[in-house]
């Protein structure tokens, strides 16, 4: 059975100063359980790592990485750079990067591979657009997103990582997938992974808040959440952490 996990994606919010403060507030109020990861912006990572030093209950991840390991790629950041700063996780394939930075399934697979080669655990984000759900092709879309990565790194490596189902129409919109809609996709992903994926952590993301988290977390294949807006305030985030701890 997969271990519960709650991750906060801070996107391009705050500054290095406010990020360090938020990190220490989250570490203060969250207990040892479940696993928690925060994803500050690149420039806030050193301050967040330092604010969390000596605290084992909150890990730090990056929101993106280059698919290259090294070289003349102006403005890019490698997995090795992130690992050296103290990151242990990295998001790959977030829908905002797929949309605004034209990241294809193949590029996401390259990034996933680069992350693992640097010793980082990737969180592979997948999800369909509103139109794709209207067309009832959400499972095909998600299958293609995951298959591209399996073809690059193999099934075992995907099962060793984390997958976040984030329907694009639910990200930042206030419209959450219903627990049934989310569970349907999660159980599909679990089945695609087969026996090797029994312990793979599958997170739901998309407008999670303190009011809807409990119902999502009771679903058998939802192991936790990837929270955006509601992770920017420690008290709100901790409330969601508590709901994961107390889930039935
Ligand atoms: P919201 O929780 O703000 O919808 O964002 C979800 C998300 O994109 C997390 O990666």
Characterise the protein shown here.
The chain has one domain (5-245): Aldolase class I (TIM Barrel, Alpha-Beta Barrel), CATH 3.20.20. The chain has 248 residues and is an alpha/beta fold. Helices cover 42% and strands 15% of the residues. The chain contains 11 helices and 8 strands. The radius of gyration is 17 Å and the shape is globular. The two termini are 14 Å apart. Bound molecules: 1,3-dihydroxyacetonephosphate.
Strand order in the sheet with the most strands: 1-2-3-4-5-6-7-8
Q: Indicate the overall shape.
A: globular
Termini separation comes to 14 Å
> Any idea of the CATH class?
Alpha Beta
Rg value: 17 Å
Q: Total domains, how many?
A: 1
Task: Please give a handful of descriptors for the protein shown.
single chain; 248 residues; alpha/beta; TIM Barrel; eight-stranded parallel barrel; binds 1,3-dihydroxyacetonephosphate
């Amino acid at each position: 059975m997969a271990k519960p996990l709650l991750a906060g994606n801070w996107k391009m919010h705050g500054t290095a100063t406010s990020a360090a403060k938020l990190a220490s507030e989250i570490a203060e109020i969250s207990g040892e359980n479940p696993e928690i990861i925060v994803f500050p912006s690149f420039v806030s990572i050193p301050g967040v790592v330092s604010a969390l030093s000596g605290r084992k209950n909150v890990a730090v991840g990056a929101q993106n990485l280059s698919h290259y390991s090294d070289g003349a790629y102006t403005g890019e950041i490698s997995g090795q750079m992130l690992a050296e700063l103290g990151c242990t996780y990295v998001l790959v394939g977030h829908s905002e990067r797929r949309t605004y930075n034209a990241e294809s399934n193949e590029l996401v697979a390259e990034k996933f591979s680069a992350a693992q080669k640097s010793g980082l655990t990737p969180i592979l984000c997948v999800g369909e657009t509103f139109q794709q759900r209207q067309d009832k092709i959400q499972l095909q879309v998600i299958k293609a997103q995951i298959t591209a990565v399996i073809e690059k790194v193999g099934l075992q490596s995907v099962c060793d990582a984390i997958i976040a189902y984030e329907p694009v129409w639910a990200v930042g919109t206030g419209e959450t997938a219903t627990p049934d809609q989310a569970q349907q996709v999660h159980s599909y992903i679990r089945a695609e992974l087969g026996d090797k994926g029994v312990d793979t952590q599958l997170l739901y993301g998309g407008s999670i808040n303190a009011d809807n988290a409990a119902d999502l977390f009771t679903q058998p294949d939802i192991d936790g959440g990837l929270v955006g807006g509601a992770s920017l305030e420690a008290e709100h985030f901790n409330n969601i952490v508590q709901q994961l701890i107390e889930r039935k």
